[in-house]
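About this split. The held-out portion is used to measure sequence recovery: a designer receives only the structure tokens and must propose an amino acid at every position. Recovery is the fraction of positions where the proposal matches the reference. Here is one held-out target exactly as it appears in the evaluation file.
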């Protein structure tokens, strides 16, 4: 059986002869190629390695499963992109060069460059998902807080250089603490949550909780036999934010629990203490002098201190104008 390609298309007469076993190609009556005929599925693709361009030879050892196996090792986003590339062409092998995009800028890139883009996209996606998990797990009171949005009104008397230094999170790496002092409504919680967000962006594990709530959780844990399990979650946080620190005097059992946390975190993790009272007044809030000495000794000498002053509270500044 002969098939002829129109002369006006290629300016030469080309004939293809098909037999049960062979495929032959003739140019102007001269046979220029012959191949064993494939009897597989319609449109089956095949080529001889010696007929392939030299830069295509490196793809002969690849197949779809090899690409997908590599992609699974990178992540779900890479698998999605590779599948789209492999199914974007009529012949699967034509997608091996990663030409599955309509963007000319991408289409002009080499295999290695496209591979690099996939890896970068997957890496960015993973980091974004991790940051989202860290912020959600931190349970910050103000999850939208941002160091850049801290307000430096003159009457607040804030040390901008110190806050900028702490926003780099080197204090977490060095296992130091922060004490933030100020009256109710001064903006202590917002500032601590801003430091918490900065820590999450540095991929540190953060946990925010009010001290009264923490002590209540531990009291319940004592009764249910889950004390060690509950205590562990507060020990493992790389940054623990304790709001309303010593707002009320501690009972003896509560003081022992506070010492347990402070001791477990001493030089192993960082803690931000938010208090309306200066460390000099903490002693009487703790009660038992020996426990108080032990707790303060592990906090005061290893902490940066920020005092937020101000004629008006931040609640008043941000409240309704009358």
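Reference sequence for scoring:
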């Amino acid at each position: 059986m002969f098939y002829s390609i129109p002369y006006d298309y290629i300016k030469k007469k080309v004939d293809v002869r098909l037999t049960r076993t062979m495929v032959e190609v003739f140019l102007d009556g001269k046979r220029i190629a012959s191949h064993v005929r494939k009897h597989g599925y319609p449109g089956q693709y095949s080529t001889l390695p010696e007929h392939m361009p030299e830069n295509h030879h490196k793809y002969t050892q690849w197949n779809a499963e090899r690409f997908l196996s590599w992609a699974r090792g990178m992540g779900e986003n890479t698998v999605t992109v590779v599948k789209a590339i492999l199914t974007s062409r009529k012949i699967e092998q034509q997608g091996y060069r990663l030409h599955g995009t309509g963007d000319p800028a991408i289409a002009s890139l080499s295999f290695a460059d496209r591979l690099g883009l996939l890896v970068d996209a997957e890496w960015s996606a993973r980091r974004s998902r991790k940051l989202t998990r860290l912020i959600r797990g931190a349970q910050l009171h103000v999850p939208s807080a941002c160091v850049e949005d801290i307000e430096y009104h003159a009457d607040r008397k804030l040390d901008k250089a110190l806050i900028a230094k702490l926003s780099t999170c080197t204090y977490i790496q060095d296992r130091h603490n922060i004490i933030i002092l100020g009256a109710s409504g001064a903006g202590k919680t917002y500032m601590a949550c801003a430091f918490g967000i900065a820590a999450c962006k540095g991929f540190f594990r953060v946990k925010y909780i009010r001290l009264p709530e923490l002590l209540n959780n531990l009291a319940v844990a004592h009764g249910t036999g889950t004390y060690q399990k509950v205590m562990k979650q507060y020990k493992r946080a790389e940054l623990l934010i304790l709001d309303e620190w010593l707002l009320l005097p501690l009972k003896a059992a509560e003081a022992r629990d506070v010492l347990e946390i402070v001791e477990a975190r001493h030089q192993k993790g960082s803690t931000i203490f938010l208090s309306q009272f200066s460390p000099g007044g903490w002693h009487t809030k703790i009660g038992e002098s020996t426990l108080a000495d032990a707790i303060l000794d592990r906090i005061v000498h290893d902490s940066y201190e920020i005092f937020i002053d101000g004629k008006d509270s931040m609640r008043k500044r941000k409240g309704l104008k009358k």
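Annotator remark: The radius of gyration is 34 Å.
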